[in-house]
């Protein structure tokens, strides 16, 4: 009886040649069913058309006009997420038993991989001589002291904070004083540094109040111009689409200020309320590199903190080499902090 029970248990485990053979037979029957179906090329024409349209939207996103509701910028903000439609279309193609649809789905898949496949790889390097971080702390943050301590724990040499309120500034100053000897707050943005600051001033981004600043940081590897900015928010409204006119105007003004910067090495830290794909930030992105794009791992989404869908908090550099870039753990804000390690002295081996 024991021997019989053993044999029965082995057979029911399904790991032997019979199980593998039955699996192959099922695949053969499925393939034979498709081969014997003369309609596999005629079905799924609509799915195939949708796949081609999806590919064209991703490939030609820069041609989508912003005239109506800033539709182009809205598409570019969430462009990576269009890739989610690829597996959906693939599954629908399987359900419809459509060879035409399945082949057509390869087109948007290839386009998406061409646009974003490089961001899926780990480009993080070692080395660097300066660590920077930026965080939109949220004006309604219930724990500003804890948020400040969390950001300082990143080990950053220079920290930028955005959306500072008058009431919360003393709390941030007290919490960061032990780590950062030098700091300046201009309007609703601030800069904390382990190294001396000079040439501190607000930057006019055409808002009527201060949400951007500039300072020269005397790092051991040389002088670096550090810009901190919080561009105006954007909204998605049913009656107006993607309302971003003021954000776009401020981005142009910030781009002009950075272009006029006398120092060769510059870093931009802040909440730009836009992604690197958004054409509205071209005045900035055309002259600076994203540390996440150059030396990060993954998409590096930073907002909203509870379920990040876009990287609108940016670290960008000019005349400086990005070495690594990452997001920090969630704080009391609705944004995630982001950090980067860069090489200021690019002449060093």
UniProtKB/TrEMBL annotation:
InterPro entries (UniProt xref): Endo/exonu/phosph_ase_sf, Endo/exonuclease/phosphatase
Domain of life: Bacteria
Transmembrane intervals: 45-66, 78-95, 102-120
Keywords annotated in UniProt: Endonuclease, Hydrolase, Membrane, Nuclease, Transmembrane, Transmembrane helix
GO MF, one annotated term: endonuclease activity
Sequence segments annotated as region (Disordered): 1-22
UniProt keyword Transmembrane helix present: yes
Domain Endonuclease/exonuclease/phosphatase: 133-335
Amino acid composition bias (Polar residues), ranges on this chain: 1-12
Protein name: Endonuclease/exonuclease/phosphatase family protein
